[in-house]
Prior knowledge:
By secondary structure, the protein is mostly helical. Among the domains are: 380-454, Leucine-rich Repeat Variant (Alpha Horseshoe); 459-543 and 556-651, no CATH class; 771-954; 958-991 and 1005-1071. It is 66% helix and 0% strand. Helix 9 (147-160) packs across helix 13 (222-242) and helix 26 packs across helix 28. It starts with a helix and ends with a helix.
Amino acid sequence: MASSGEATASQRRKSGRAVKVPDKFQPEVESSKNAGAGGKRKRSGDDMEGVENEEEQEEEEEESDEEDDEESEEEEAPVKKKSKPKAAVTKSAPVAKKAKVNGSAPQPKAHSMRLPSRAKKPTGKVVFKDNDAEGLYAEIFTSDKSSKDVATQWLGEYDADNTAAMADLVNCVLKCAGCDIKVTEDDINDPDNSPNRLNEIQDEHKEKNVADYPLISKAKSSHAFKVCLTDFFESLMGLMHSTTVLYEDIALIENIHLWITSMSSSFLRPFRHTATVIALACATGLCEVAKSQVQNTADMLTLMEKEEKLGSKANKGRLATYQKNIDKGKQHRETSEGTIKDFFDTVFVHRYRDVDPKIRTDCVEALGQWILILPTTFYEGTFLRYLGWLLSDQNGPTRHEVIKQLERIMKYGELGGIRNFIDRFRPRIVEMATKDAETTVRASAVDLLDMIREKGMLEPDDIDIIGKLIFDSDIRVRKSVVNFFAANIEDLYESKIEDLGGEEALDEAFTLDDENKENPCSGWIKLKALAEVLLNYDDGDAVDEGSSQDDDLVISDGTINAAGFESRYSLAAEVLYDKVAELQDWEMLTGYLLFDHSNKQKAGSVSVAVRSAFKLEEKEEVALLEILHAVVKTHLARLGEDHHQKKKGGKSASRVDEDSTARKLAAVLPRLLKLFGSKPKTSTAVLRLEHVLNLGIFQELRQDSTAYATLLHEIKSQFKSHADAHVLREASVALLHAQAFEELGETTEDQMQSLWVDTIDDLRKRFPKSTEISVRGDTKVELVLQLTTTVTRLNRLAGISNPVELFEKAPKKTAKGDRSSTMPVIDMLLELVGRGFLDTPDPDIDDEEDKLVISAIQTSLFYFMWKGRALKEAVENAEEVSDVDVDEIKERTETFSDKLISTLSSRAGLDPCRLQATGSILDLYTIFRSILTSKKAEAALAENDFSHLLTLVRHIAPEVQEEITSIFATAEKHYANKAHKTLEPPADNDDPEDIDSDPEDDDEGLTDAERQVDGLKAELQLCDLSSKLVLAIYARVIDAEGALEGKLKHRMIRNKRRLGANVAQILAVLEEPNPKKGKRGKTSGGKKPKESEARAKMKSLEIVVDDDEDEDEEEEVDEEERRRQELIDEEGPPSADEADEEIVEEEDEEILGD
Length: 1154
C-alpha cells in the first residue's frame, strides 16, 4: 500500500500540482481565519469529489496515502532547493514534510505566511472607525475578521440563542441603513408584527431628517462598505448550506427573508436601498449554493452510471448511497431555488424599476451575476427580458451597467441562450451605440455589438451603421469602433484576395523588390480596401461638400469643424494606426500614392487584374492623402515620445529615425505637390503634410538647402495658382511654419518677397483706374471674382508677415499706356471696403460683392494691427513719431471707420458683411487703445510728449453704440430661436430695443443634423460678437462715457444665464469686479509722479487709464483681450492660430467645439 502511494505521489509531483492541507491532518492548528480567507470549503469540496472519483479503483487506505502525498507535494519544491542528494528522499520524507506544514520546523514558516496573506484580505475591509459600533455590525466592519469568520461566529451565536442573534442581525441591517434605532427580541418573536414595527422605525427615523447613509456616502470607504456587507451575506448563505442549517432550520431563512423584504419596500430610500442590496447578495449566495448542488448531483450521477456498468459486480450498498445522496441533493436544491425565487419575486421584480437609479443599477448587476452563476435557471428569455427593458432606462449608469452585463454574458455564456434576446433587442443596442447621450454608454454598446458581430448575429445594415462611427466626433467612440471597423476592412481585403486567386497567386504576382516602397505589394490592396470602406461609410460628404467651400466667407459661415482642420479621414486614421499594420508604414503609403498606373514598365510582371485591384479613384486619392497626413503625424509623435523616454545623451535611435523621416518627407513632398497640386482638394491634403515636417533638420544639414528651396518653391506655386480658400489657408500656414526657423530665414524671405511683389502687382493690374471702385455694382462680376482672389491672397500674407511698408509704398511711375493703379495698396483696400455700402440689393451680384468686401475689411484690419504694434513699440522705446505720420494714420483710420459704419448701417439683420464690419470697428478702436496698456508705455508717456499720437485713441460714437447694441440683440434673439431658449424680458427701466429683424424659427423641413449645424452657427456668431464687445468694453472704447455709459454692459448680461455655457463664460468677465476700480485718476502718495503726469495728459484727452499702485503687479488683462492683442504686444510675426483667427473665423469654431 505504501509503495502504491509513493508511486502515485511521485507521478503527481511531476505534474506540479499543489494541494492545500486538509483539515484532518492538522486538527491542532487554529485555522478558522485561514479556512475562511482561503476558501477551505471549496477546496475540501473539490478534494471530496476527487475521492469519490477514485473509489472504484482504490481502497480507502490508498486514498488516504494519496492525499498524504498530495499534501507533501505542496512543500516539495522549496525542500528540493535545500536538499542536495536525490537519494535522500525516503519513505519517511513525506512524514517530515507533514510536520513542516504543521509548523514544527522553520521551513514551513514561509508557507504559513503565504496562507494568511489571503486570510488577511478582509483587514482591508475596515470601512471606518466607529467607537459606538457593537454586535454584528462591529464584527463585520470594524474588525479584521473575514466575512466567513464573522458568519461562522454569528451562526454559532444563533445556535446558542436564535432570538438574540436574529435581533442582532436585524439591528445590523438597520445600522447599515444609517438608523440607530433597534429592534428587541420581542419584535423578533412576533414576526407577524414585523411590518408594523418597521413602519414605526421608519417614522421615527424620518423625523431625524438623516439624508446620508453608508451605501451612498462620498467617503472613500463607501465601496468597501458595500463589499463587506454583500460578502457577509453571501458567506452566510454558503455557510448555512454547508452546515445544513438552510434545510434543517427553515425558520432562519424565513425570518431573514421576512425582515429584508419588508425593508426593501420601505418609502425611505436608505432602508429600501440597503435591504435591496442585502436581498440581492443573499440571492447571489444561494445561486452559488445551487450551482454547487447541480455539480455535486451531476458527479453523483456519473459515479452511479459507472457503478451500474459493472453489472453483477456492482456494489449495491454504494449504489444505494449514491441514490440517497442524489435524492437528498434534489431536495436541497428545491429548497435553495425556492428561496432564490422568493427573493426574486418579492425584491427584484419590484426594485428593478425603482425610482432610485442606484437601486436599479444594483439589480442589473445582480441579475447578470445570477445568469452566469446559475444559467440553468436564469439564462432564458423570462429573465433576460429584464435586461432588455432596462436598455431604455433614463439613467446613463444603469444603461451602461446593462451593456456591461450583456458583454459578460456574451463572453462567458452559451450562445444559444441569448440569440432570441439579441434578435429582439438588437435595434435598441444599435440605437444606443449611435445616439445615446452618454459617451461611455455609446462606446460600451459598440464593444457589445462587436461581440455580437463575431458571433454572426449582426445584420449587414447594422454593420454599416456602426462602421460609420469611425467618423464620430468623440475619440472614445472612435477608439471603441476600431476593432469593428478593422474587421470590415479585413473582410473586404480577403474577398479581394479570393477574387485574385488567393494568397499564393498574389505572392507570385508581386515579384519585385520588397525594399523599394514604390513597388506594388499586397499592402496596397489593403489600403485600397481601407479607402473604399471609408468612402462608403462617409457617403462622400467630406469630399463633395469641400468643393463648394471655396472662400473664407463660406468656411466661416458654413463649416463647423470641432477638430480644427483635421479631416474626418485623418481622425479615423489616428485611431486605426495601431490596428491596421499597413498604416504604420507611411513610406509604403506614399509609394502607393506616387505610383504611375499608366506605366506598364514600372508595374513589372503585375497582371492587369491585380493592377486594377489597387488602382485608385480620385476620391480614394483624397482620402489616402488625408490618411497619410494622420499617419505621418502619429509616426513622428511616437518617435518623439520614445526620444523623450530614452534621452541619455547623444542621439537616440528614435531621434535618428525622426530626422530620417523628416528628410524623406521633405524629399517626397515636392513630388506629391507636382502630382496632386492641380486639384484643390488633393493640394490641400498634401500641403497639410508640411505642417508636421520638422524643418530644423535643414538647419543642421546645410547640404539639404536645395531640397528646402524646392519645397518652398512648390508651396509658393500652389499659393499663386489656386483661388480655393482651403489651399490658400494651408499654403499660408506652411509659409508661417517655414518662417519659424531663423537659420532658413534668407531662403524663406526671398520666397515671401516674391509672393508679395507678384500679388501686389496682380492687384494693381486688376484695379481699374477710370472707374469709381468704391461704388458697388460698377464692375463686372468676372473682375470682382479676380479681385476677391487677389485680396484673399493679400489677406493670407498679411496674417503671417508685416505688410505696412509694402501697403504704404507708392509705386514707381509707370510707362504711358500702363493701366496699373498708382495708389498705395492700403488706399486701394479702403476703396474696396467702401463697396460694403448697400443701397439697392441685387441678388445676382451681392454674394460675390460681399465676399470681396469681407476680404478687403480683413486685410485692412491686419494693416492697422501691424501699424498699432509699431506705434506701441515706438512709444515704449520713447522713439519720436512725426505728426505727419500720425495725421496719415488718423486719416486712414477715420476713413476705414466711416466706411465700416456705413456698411453696417446700410444693412439689416445678421448679414455677414454687417457682422464683419461690426467686429472690425470694435477691433480697430481696441487696437489703438492697446498702445497704453503696458507700464513701459505709461512711463514713456509721462516723460515725452505724445499728445498728438494719443488723438488716435477715441471712443465709439453714441449712435454707433446704439446700432451695435441692436445688432447684439438681434444675434441673441436669433441664437435663442435656433437653440430653443427663452430670453429674459426687458425690465421696466430698460430702454426699448430696436431689433432690426425678429427672426422666426424656420427649422421646418430640416434634418436633425442641419438643425444642429444652424444652432452652432448661430452660437458662433453670438460668441464672436460678444467676445469683441467684451474686449472693447474693457478697453473703454465703448460704453464708457456719456449718457449711454454702462447700458451696453447691462444689456449684454441680462440673458447671461439663459444662453448656454459658452456665451455665459464670455459674459462672465463683465460681472467680475475690477480690482482697480475706485483708484482711477489717483496717485499713490506721490510715489510715482511720472505715472501721475501721464494720467493727467490722458485725462485731458478724455482717456482713463487704471492706476497701478504696486510696481511689480502684472497687468490684469482679460484672457480674451490678451489673445486678441498678441499681434501688437509680442515680438515677431503672429502665430498660425492668430493669423487664421483673423483671416478666417473658423478658428472661433474650434474654440466653440472645445
